[in-house]
Specification:
By secondary structure, the protein is an all-beta fold. Helices cover 0% and strands 65% of the residues.
């Protein structure tokens, strides 16, 4: 049973934090092909997200994850503790091999962030249906 899947999706939303609104969005293109027991797939994504950089060492453990800058007062003037926008391209592929109800899958993704950071992701999984 050979199959081909082509999929495209877009998401958008607003993240509300500390009385400020931040727009996040992304697009994903995905294709998968399966020929008898062997499968292949490829994807490309582009998106934006909001994240908080790591806290300075002297603040770790003193605040919860959802604090606002105005709670800190003058203690960290000029410190990068506010939310930051991250944009990235993400591309990768996977391959799978099926034995009855068991599937072995391996894949790799490379994320290229706009701040010149690269993220390499490798996964290996074994799935069994009961």
């Amino acid at each position: 049973n050979d199959t081909t899947l082509l999929q495209a999706q877009y998401f958008g939303g607003v993240m509300r934090h500390c009385n400020e609104d931040g727009f996040v969005q992304g697009v994903t293109l995905l294709s998968r092909w399966k020929f008898k027991r062997i499968g292949f797939g490829a994807h490309y994504s582009f998106g934006t997200e909001l994240e908080r950089p790591p806290l300075p060492a002297f603040l770790e453990g003193r605040l919860d994850d959802d604090f606002c800058l105005d709670e800190l007062g003058q203690e960290v003037s000029g410190s990068p503790v506010d939310l930051a926008e991250t944009r990235a391209h993400d591309m990768g592929g996977l391959t799978s091999l099926t034995f009855g109800k068991t599937q072995l899958q391996a894949g790799y993704s490379l994320q290229l962030r706009f701040n010149d950071t690269e993220v390499h992701i490798f996964h290996l999984s074994l799935q069994k249906a009961f």
